Structure formats: structure tokens, C-alpha cells
Amino acid sequence: MHDRDSGWWVVTAEAVLETKRLTKDYGGVGVFDLDLSVRRGEVFGFLGPNGAGKSTTIRMLLDFVRPDAGEVRVLGADPRVAGPSVRARTGFLPSELSLWGRSTGRQVLGHLGRLRGGLDRAWTDELCRRLDVELDRPVKSLSTGNKQKIGLVQAFAHRPELVVLDEPTTGLDPLVQQEFQRLVRETADDGVTVFLSSHTLAEVERVADRVAVLRRGRLVTTERVAALKELAVRRVVAETREEPDRRAFAALDGVRDVEVEGHRVSATVEGHVDALVKVLARHTVLSLDVEEADLEEIFLAMYQDQDQDDPRGGRDRSSAERKPQEAR
Ligand SMILES: Nc1ncnc2c1ncn2[C@@H]1O[C@H](COP(=O)(O)OP(=O)(O)OP(=O)(O)O)[C@@H](O)[C@H]1O
């Protein structure tokens, strides 16, 4: 971890991946002054719209691209000095996967296994079974999703200490996505660090412990997913035996769009639903439905440029604007 006061790198057993003011300038676009710190066993989502700089960052982590400025530490080493060993200890899925077209999936995985000093066949078979990989057809004849599954298997197959996945769920059907998410969680539970880049929060929300959001090459925020959920907006609908008093709900902080129809009350709540539930509890509550937190709204606000118009027509942006803070 980088000690901001002393300016020195403090090596912690926990930090598996760190960058300090990492910069790659492709003439005004690229990555600028990026500070990241990812702990061992953490699932870290790296989010940003197209062109935000996610792939460029990943390339610098693995020394495929050299930074113009700043520092990188991956698995305790500088990839510019120890690139081959860092890459050997890392499982990597690139954003544009290219495999040997004429070979079958089985041949590709066998070849990569040999390059890495031997294949753990039982584990590779298990990965292929879980992700439902097509092993016996030439890779060039496979669909995007089926190619992607081979890319995922090779990233996990050598039991790396760190897994870096650039847009991992591209083309995967929902069942395979679910299995992939289970695999990521299990991998992290075994102490392996997983770094996932994505355009959308929905892709990483269920598995990531923390997310960093990048926009135009710069870090907007790093936040725990659980903390984001606390700030999210959700719709609450309840039915009560007595007619609810609309004003009591409308008076609550963070509660808006209150509607009462007969014995049914609905409202939009920012953050905790606690205050609303306490007002509800003055009635006999017959049913209560709390929608799952919608984090997309927060993220869309972060993706927007500050100088652009409010995408939500100028209404209250409180939750989205309150939040960005380093959660460490
Ligand atoms: N080799 C390069 N030469 C010039 N510009 C580049 C190069 N590589 C990336 N860029 C530019 O740097 C910016 C960041 O690109 P990058 O591919 O890292 O974004 P990304 O967040 O991965 O986007 P996407 O989600 O679309 O893959 C873009 O404006 C891109 O055009």
C-alpha cells in the first residue's frame, strides 16, 4: 500500500495489486493518475464506459503496455521488472481473445497447460464441465460465448494467485454467467484475488466486494458494493389494514413520490428503508414489498461528465452526488 504522507511503498501481505498515479497518455486519452489497491482474496470490479481506460490499465498491470508515469505492484513485484513471473502467477482473460483457430478447445487448453508447466487435468475438466465448454470443435467455428468460455477456463486452470478478467461475461448465457459468478466467489474464498473489468455494474454487482469506477481515464470512486446498496434508490409498496396517512410518509427524509390508493401506499426511498418501515408499523401491515436496490442510477450519474446536463431531467440527485468517496 502506498503511504501518502511518506511517499514510500509499504508492502502489506494483503495488497496484491497496487497502482500509484499510474498514467498512460495516448494524447489526452488513456489513463491518468490512477491509484488502486486491491487486497488478497478480494473480488474487485473495475467499471467504466467504453474508452474509460480499463483495458489500458490491465495491460499496464501485466506489462503488455508500459506506463508513462506512476507505479505498479502486482503480487509484490513491479511487472516492468518481473513481467514473466507476474504473468505466470496470474490468470488473464483479455478483452479481445484470440485463440488458435484450427485447434479444438481441448488442444488449446492442453497447449496452454504445457506452456505453464503442466495441466491439472481434473481441475480443468471440472472447469469445462461447469462452464459447459465445447471442447471438440475447432475454436474458429465456435460462437463468441463458447470461445469466451475457453478463455475463462484457461484463466483459472493453472490455479493462479490473481485472476484478471477483461469483460469476462461477453456473450455468456445467463446460466453460464451464474456458474461463472459462483466460480469467482469460490476462487476468492480460497484466497485468490479476482480483478474484473466491466461496462456495467449489473455484471459485477453480485460478486464484487468493491468496485472502482473509471471515467475518461480517471478514477471517480472506489466503494464497497454493500455501501453503494445503502445509498441506492428502491421502490417500497405496502398494504395496510387502515388507510395510510400520506403526509406522514411524505415528511420523511429521503422518501419521495409517495402515492396512496385506498389501503396501498408506495414510495421511492433513497438509502435505508428504516424510517419508512417505522411509520408503516403504526398500521397493521398486510403486505410489504421492497424492490431490490437499483444501483444503476448511481452509476449512470458517475458515468456522466460533470459538465453535461442532468440525465434525469434536473430532479433531486442527492444520493448519487453524496456518495463518491474512497471506502478504505
Ligand atoms: N494503443 C493505443 N493508441 C492510442 N490510443 C489508445 C490505444 N489504446 C487505447 N487507446 C485509447 O485510450 C482510451 C482508453 O481505451 P481502453 O481500451 O483502455 O478503454 P476501455 O475502458 O477498456 O474501453 P472498452 O470498454 O471500450 O474496451 C481510448 O480513448 C482508446 O481509444
UniProtKB/TrEMBL annotation:
Region (Disordered): 302-328
Record has Hydrolase as a keyword: no
UniProt-annotated location(s): Cell membrane
Segments traversing the membrane: none
Compositional bias per record (Basic and acidic residues), positions renumbered to this chain: 309-328
Residue ranges constituting the ABC transporter domain according to the UniProt record: 17-241
Homology family: Belongs to the ABC transporter superfamily.
Protein's name according to its UniProt entry: ABC transporter ATP-binding protein
Source organism: Pseudokineococcus basanitobsidens
Organism placement in taxonomy: Bacteria, Bacillati, Actinomycetota, Actinomycetes, Kineosporiales
